[in-house]
Automatic annotation (TrEMBL):
It comes from marine metagenome. GO terms for molecular function: FAD binding. SUPFAM superfamilies: FAD-binding/transporter-associated domain-like. The lineage of its organism: unclassified sequences, metagenomes, ecological metagenomes. This is FAD-binding PCMH-type domain-containing protein. It holds the Pfam family FAD_binding_4. Residues 33-213 form the FAD-binding PCMH-type domain.
Amino acid sequence: VEDAATSTDVLIAEVASHVGADAVRESTAVDFVDGVRPRLVVEPRTQEGLAAALGWATSRTLTIGVRGGGTKLQWGGNVGPVDLLVLTGSLNSLVKHRYGDLTATVEAGATLSSINAALANHDQWLPMDPPWSDRATIGGIVATNDSGPSRHRHGAPRDLIIGCNLVLSDGQIAKSGGIVVKNVAGYDLARLLTGSFGCLAVITSATFKLAPRAPSS
């Protein structure tokens, strides 16, 4: 009840103290999720900023939504009221390309097409081909386990992911898996999160097995 009565300006000021004033704003018409308008929108620049925003929202008992490219917003169940919409678009870098090991670590807000364009410099690619790959983000693809025809040869995202960094709703940062294909360290949370539709945690980066690009004919 207290948070429902708190003005949007007050909430913006509070979360801005955690993520910076340039990373938070009031929602607009473009931020609607399944017909629901969030109260606030935050786009953290770092994993730590995202963790701070989630921790703050949980302490305030605010409802949280997460959006990448917005290509699969109609998937899953109906969305209820959203207080804080977290955008991952600023977490969009290719963290590390280990081309000798055929693996890469990428941030969740990067689009699949941008990552594959970078990997092409070493004639490799992340062998996933879901619809709208120019807008679909790595985090959204993993969260929905989305795939295309290449699944029959290379597998689905759940088969390709070998590790990830994640943030829990209370702001705790965790990691699972490793950076090499042969890895048996700890619980396989990366595969647990794949296909979970963001209900368990927010993925901030993920490490995948890659494939060589076929020679052009």
